[in-house]
Write a structure and sequence with these properties.
single chain; 138 residues; alpha+beta; seven-stranded antiparallel beta sheet; 3 helices; disordered C terminus
Length: 138
């Protein structure tokens, strides 16, 4: 289900992003603080996560400024890179690490869990009845 196009940031023309990517069901959405790619300042952005991409925009109703394709994501986890930033997490892709900050521990965990569940769909459901019964009979 992943797109193989490279992730794009705000300096890239997003008109090339297929509309089906932007119209997939939303897994999670909300405001996060994101570090800029070139100028390392922190800006509030509206993020929308689907099974294929994480998009962000200035406000909920404005056009997308960037997209991170889930096919490019290697890992999403809590980050300690900036000790003064609470609730910081990183989304590591093949070409770049994105730093994002949530407003609470619960929100950070919710985002990293949602991202991980897309990357590894069966992570929280690795046992089914047939496995359990075969283990108990041995």
């Amino acid at each position: 289900p992943f797109s193989t196009r490279p992730s794009v940031d705000s300096d890239t023309d997003l008109s090339e992003v297929p509309s089906d990517i932007l119209n997939l069901p939303i897994v999670r959405e909300g405001y996060l603080i994101k570090q800029g790619q070139k100028i390392k300042n922190w800006k509030r952005r509206w993020f929308t996560l689907s099974s294929s991409a994480l998009t962000y925009r200035e406000e909920e109703s404005t056009a997308a400024k960037g997209i991170i394709y889930m096919a490019d994501v290697i890992l999403a986890r809590r980050s300690c890179k900036y000790p003064d930033k609470k609730f910081l997490f990183e989304v590591i892709t093949k070409k770049r690490t994105y730093y994002m900050m949530a407003s609470s521990q619960d929100e950070m965990t919710s985002w990293t869990d949602a991202l991980t569940n897309i990357l590894i769909p069966d992570l929280n459901n690795n046992c089914n009845n047939s496995d359990a019964s075969s283990l108990s009979s041995s």
